[in-house]
């Protein structure tokens, strides 16, 4: 008997509930009472889906979320229908979601539109019930209505959002000299819904790089170091032709770069450069770098040799002795890390595509791999089914619960499942069914 979660509100008198009021999916309309959640044994797993706007897989129709207990997330007889019964996360386009480490709180900053830049926080109650908590605050005056933001790993206390603006500069003879890149960073008190700090800084590359037309064109994914005194911000480089200032699309890819700021002051920017990886470090919609064992491990994208996992040590410099290339580890070409997340044991699940990916309805086909940061190895997770329309470019969230990592698998417009990867043993469990709708896709767990 498959269980389908209904659109019913959880009982307010229950402080901790696993779930949800359920009914049998056939002709049995008997409602079973909610179970009691043992906080020592379970956590909420919130599934997020991005609804189609104009085209399949664009995710521009809004974001819906739905939560179940970890036991139900592991149960293949459970059926979850976020697109039918989910809570609409406020956002004009795909919401930028974050969750607390225990899964009991969802943080959201609306992306674009009239509400763009609004920060809201919700207590997870089960099913479609996400209860607003605390006050709202807008970060739009600081970083605009389409902010790139992330939750810092400091015990769910702080979020950070960033932007960059650029302006070409010329000498007295109207000859191009460089492109000025000004970054803005705001930190947000997630507990009290208030602005902590905001700073703008001019960030320069080397004189030679700037004279050749290189500049920082996008930044994202701020990450706090282990000491808590530096903030690392991923960067994408672009280039103009110095003779014409027209965009240059055929140029040498420089070493991967990261902006380093003092924290919490957000002052004194420097730029560090990897001698191992080349390409961008800003990621896209998923957290792109994580602190582990005293260092920060960072994925890069657009590397001519395929994506690397790079390492920044406690001295706030790249450790060029650490070389972990996904092409080499998986035996593929053109690996591109779309999203990833390590557990506390240094083993990680990586969402990726490569040059051999099929072209699906929304873009290149995606895959998952299990990687070991210490051994610098990775292998494709074969137990997860793949489809040409399995699209992971917009993937955002993984849940880490001990050594287990929860992820979603479903091609665009097709049903799929939650899968749970035990990073220690490599065992993969097929969990609850994810019910899709035409043109939409799932963007992760939180």
From TrEMBL:
The keyword Signal applies. Keywords: Signal. Residues 1-23 form the signal peptide. This is DUF4374 domain-containing protein. It comes from Arenibacter troitsensis.
């Amino acid at each position: 008997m498959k269980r389908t979660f209904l659109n019913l509100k959880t009982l307010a008198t229950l402080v901790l509930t696993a779930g949800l009021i359920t009914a049998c999916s056939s002709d049995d309309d008997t409602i079973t009472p909610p179970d009691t959640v043992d906080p020592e044994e379970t956590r909420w797993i919130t599934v997020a889906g991005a609804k189609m706007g104009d085209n399949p897989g664009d995710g521009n129709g809004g974001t819906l979320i739905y939560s179940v207990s970890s036991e139900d997330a592991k149960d293949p007889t459970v059926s979850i229908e976020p697109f039918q019964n989910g809570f609409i996360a406020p956002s004009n386009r795909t919401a930028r979601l974050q969750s607390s480490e225990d899964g009991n709180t969802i943080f959201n900053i609306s992306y674009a539109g009239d509400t763009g830049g609004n920060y809201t926080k919700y207590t997870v109650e089960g099913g479609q019930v996400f209860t607003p908590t605390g006050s709202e605050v807008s970060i739009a005056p600081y970083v605009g209505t389409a902010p790139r933001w992330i939750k810092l790993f400091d015990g769910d206390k702080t979020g950070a959002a960033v932007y960059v603006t650029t302006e070409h500069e010329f000498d007295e003879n109207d000859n191009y000299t460089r492109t000025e890149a000004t970054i803005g960073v705001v930190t947000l008190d997630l507990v009290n819904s208030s602005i902590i700090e905001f700073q703008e800084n001019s960030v320069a590359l080397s004189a030679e790089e700037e004279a050749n037309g290189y500049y920082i064109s996008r930044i994202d994914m701020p990450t706090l170091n282990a000491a808590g005194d530096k903030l690392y911000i991923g960067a994408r480089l672009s280039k103009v032709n110095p003779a014409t200032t027209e965009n240059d699309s055929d140029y040498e890819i420089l070493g991967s770069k990261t902006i380093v700021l003092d924290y919490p002051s957000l002052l004194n920017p420097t730029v560090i450069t990897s001698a191992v990886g080349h390409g961008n470090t800003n990621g896209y919609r998923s957290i792109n770098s994580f602190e582990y064992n005293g260092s920060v491990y960072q994925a890069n994208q657009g590397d001519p040799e395929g994506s690397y996992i790079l390492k920044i040590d406690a001295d706030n410099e790249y450790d060029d002795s650490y070389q972990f290339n996904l092409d080499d580890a998986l035996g593929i070409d053109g690996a591109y890390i779309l999203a990833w997340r390590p557990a506390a044991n240094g083993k990680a699940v990586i969402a990726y595509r490569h040059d051999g990916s099929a072209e699906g309805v929304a873009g290149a086909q995606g895959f998952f791999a299990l990687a070991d940061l210490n051994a610098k190895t990775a292998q494709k997770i074969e137990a997860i089914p793949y489809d040409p329309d399995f699209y992971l470019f917009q993937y955002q969230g993984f849940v880490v619960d001990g050594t287990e990592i929860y992820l979603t698998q479903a091609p665009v417009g097709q049903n799929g499942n939650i899968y749970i990867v035990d990073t220690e043993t490599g065992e993969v469990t097929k969990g609850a069914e994810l019910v899709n709708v035409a043109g939409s896709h799932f963007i992760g767990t939180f």
